[in-house]
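Quick entry between incubations.
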Amino acid sequence: MSEPISRRALILQEAAHLFREKGYPGANLRELARRSGIQGGSIYHHFASKQEILFQLMDNTMSDMIERLSERLIDSQTPYEKLRTTVYFHIEYHVTGPDQTYITDDELRNLEPENYLRVVAKRDRYQKIIEEIMLAGKTEEGWRLAEPKLYTRALIKMCAGVATWFNPDGDMSITQVAEAYADLLCNGLLPR
Amino acid sequence: MSEPISRRALILQEAAHLFREKGYPGANLRELARRSGIQGGSIYHHFASKQEILFQLMDNTMSDMIERLSERLIDSQTPYEKLRTTVYFHIEYHVTGPDQTYITDDELRNLEPENYLRVVAKRDRYQKIIEEIMLAGKTEEGWRLAEPKLYTRALIKMCAGVATWFNPDGDMSITQVAEAYADLLCNGLLPR
DNA sequence: TTGTACCTAACAAACGTTAGGTTTGCTTCT
DNA sequence: AGAAGCAAACCTAACGTTTGTTAGGTACAA
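Done. Structure below.
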């Protein structure tokens, strides 16, 4: 079945959780090591520095998001379908991997300049994918939007925000939330 | 005109800025003192601890938000007007005081249990105000929303998110952005 | 003279990081 | 098969620095 998780992967996983709990500067490597089942110093056998752990975490997540969203969009034809797919994906990805996505959305300020640029570049690529959908919707289906970039950001923020309050044991499923959010974006609050 | 700012207020202001820059655990009191024009230890003449600075910051901000939003809503009559007013206010408040609002939205995890509860209580009061508007819109104007709480959160997240990218020197004013966001919430993307 | 506002210097603890040693499992040679 | 070699994975103990916080003092205005 699934391979046994490598220690390196385990450290990254625990780091995501710990960084979300305490923030990057508030998390310490001894605690991270403990949760990963090794001693403090042994972290450095797998990573060169604390900073590298953060960078790998964020860089991996961004790559994964771009790849997975692109895959999903292949099956969608119209801009309308693509928009709904994107809303679904973005919410689902944030809710299922809340640690990774929280770090990636929120710890940019703690990246050293070089790492910062690389992660931001990937984030911009991801945004661009959604922006293109908005643009296509405008030209092909007459969507009512002046600034595609503006609404791209609105979509990203509101969908990412779901992860901060969503409760798997609550009375709404991810799909139901995604449906509701997609409806809001498409049709708005006012009656038609 | 405006009174000379008290040292205490200055420290809070600089703390908001510093905490946003580095995160609460990443910010240190000597740097905060330096920016406030005093020596490290002197912070403790004004505050009992680093934690108290964070709490005062967040608590003040939440109180201010509740008060100011309530004031603004007095002039609005219909749920429709109230919704637009809320969108305007929430965006404007986040864009004009990005340090305070960022901390308040983001540093909950670093509050000690007692402080946490008090700030969350105020945050919930703020949310409740918006939720009531959603509910009124549904019953009085037939808005299309199943879960008012759901859309309240969507509104809050997407409007707060503006502060992360808004540029006062860019080619859109706060008002223009607010207009666009309010339109999106009311009417959605699809043509009518 | 009394209290507010601040400074200086130090404390103990916690931090990221490093050096050097030990264990473990695999490969290679005889 | 068994010994020898080796690199990866990990441990232990320590380093220098930074951290929040405190104690005790000074300057000054009411």
